[in-house]
Every structure is written in C-alpha cells, then in structure tokens.
C-alpha cells in the first residue's frame, strides 16, 4: 500500500514538472520573455543632463516640483497664497507672500539658501557627487563645476546634508531595493597541514 501511494505521488510530481517545462518552452518560443523583462535604466550623461536643464528657468521648475510637491507655500508663514514677481531687476524665481508680504524663492530655508551660484551649478555638483562611487574631493569638484575650492567644499557639504537619512529631501526607500555585498579580508594565515577555503567559506579569524 505504501509503495502504491509513493508511486502515485511520484507520477503526480513528474506530470507537474513536465507541464511547467512545456509552459516555459512555449514562452521562450513565443518570445514573451523579452517582453516580461524590465528595460534597464541607463545612467544619464552630461549631454543628456544639459538637455534636461537647458537654462536657469528649467532648473527652478525642477526644484519647485521637488520641494513644492503639494503646491507653492511660503516658508515664513506656510501660506499657500503667493504671486510671482516680474520685472527687469527682479531675481528669477522670486515670489511674494500674499499674507505676510515677505519675498521668497524655492531655495529659501534649504541648504541652498541665499546662494549666489546658479542652480545649474548645484545640479551639476549633485550629478558628480551622486555618480562618484568612491567620493569626490572639493578640489576636483571645483574644477569640474567651474567654481573655487571653498565654494565646492561648501556646496559639497550642503548636498551631503540633503542626502542624510531622515532628511526632508530624501524619501524613504520603497519598492525593490538592491544591495551589493562584499567580503573584506586577506589571505588565510598559513598553518602546517591546514587548508582554508577562500572568500566566504574561510574559517580564518
């Protein structure tokens, strides 16, 4: 009785595996695997970044869409009623609150507050800092962006401040998060008559 029951289970498993194999072969033959794969997002280069932000107005629109997601608000009184100032002598992206009558820009009350650099240089510095896997010095960052070493040191710290965990500018991780792991360690110590595995399998202390 036990042998008959085991035979039935083995036949059932073989039929399930065979049906799955036929399904996989059918998918491969019809080419659906290519459509099911998500396209890999290529990193943006400098030319594409310049096309994305051709002028200072596009940089302001980008930061306004990121900081003011739910609409423009006054950083002084948190009022949602304000109007844009226009004129030949008016700074770009300047607004005035209808309630407290104070002027503000999208950089107000942020690490970019009262900056004299263009927002394009800030975006360019963010690009180099984010895409440098081993970090970047203020001297080299200043040469790439076209500013002094002191300015590069200041905006470098401001950008890293915005990237801190728990910052209002950095949302919480969501969806699929990919992490890389790495084993750090030298060769196993030599012992007479003892062989050590390399990598994670080593028993070296």
Describe it.
By secondary structure, this protein is mainly alpha-helical. Among the domains are: 43-68 and 107-167, no CATH class; 70-105. It is built from 7 helices and 3 strands; from the N terminus they run ααααβββααα. The chain has helices at residues 2-30, 32-36, 46-52, 56-67, 119-131, 138-145, 149-162; strands at 82-84, 95-97, 103-104. The chain has a 3-stranded antiparallel sheet, with no helix packed on it. The radius of gyration is 29 Å and the shape is elongated.
How is this structure best summarized?
The chain is built from 7 helices and 3 strands. It has 205 residues and is mostly helical.
In angstroms, what separates the terminal alpha carbons?
54 Å
> Percent helix among the residues?
40-55%
Q: Main sheet: which strands, in order across? A: 1-2-3
Rg calculated over all Cα atoms: 29 Å
Return residue spans where pLDDT drops below 50 for at least 5 consecutive residues: 23-38
Largest sheet: 3 strands, antiparallel
Give the tally of β-strands: 3
Helix- and strand-based class? Answer: mainly alpha
The helix tally amounts to 7
Mean pLDDT: 75
- Overall outline: elongated
**Estimated share of beta-strand residues:** under 5%
Question: What are the secondary-structure elements, in order, as H or E?
Answer: HHHHEEEHHH
């Amino acid at each position: 009785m036990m042998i008959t029951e085991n035979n039935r289970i083995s036949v059932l498993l073989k039929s399930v595996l065979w049906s799955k194999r036929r399904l996989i072969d059918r998918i491969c033959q019809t080419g659906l695997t290519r459509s099911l794969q998500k396209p890999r997002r290529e990193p943006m280069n400098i030319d594409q970044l310049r096309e994305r932000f051709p002028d200072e107005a596009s940089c302001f629109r980008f930061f306004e869409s990121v900081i003011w997601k739910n609409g423009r608000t006054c950083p002084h009184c948190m009022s949602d009623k304000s109007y844009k100032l226009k004129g030949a002598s008016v700074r770009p992206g300047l607004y005035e609150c209808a309630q407290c009558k104070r002027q503000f820009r999208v950089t107000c009350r942020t690490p970019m507050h009262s900056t004299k650099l263009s927002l394009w240089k800030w975006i360019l510095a963010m690009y180099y800092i984010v895409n440098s896997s081993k970090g970047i010095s203020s001297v080299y960052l200043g040469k790439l962006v076209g500013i002094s070493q002191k300015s590069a040191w200041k905006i470098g710290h401001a950008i890293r401040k915005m990237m801190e965990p728990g910052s209002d500018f950095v949302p919480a991780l969501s969806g699929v998060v990919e992490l890389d792991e790495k084993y750090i360690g030298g060769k196993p110590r030599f012992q007479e008559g003892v062989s050590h595995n390399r990598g994670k399998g080593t028993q070296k202390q």
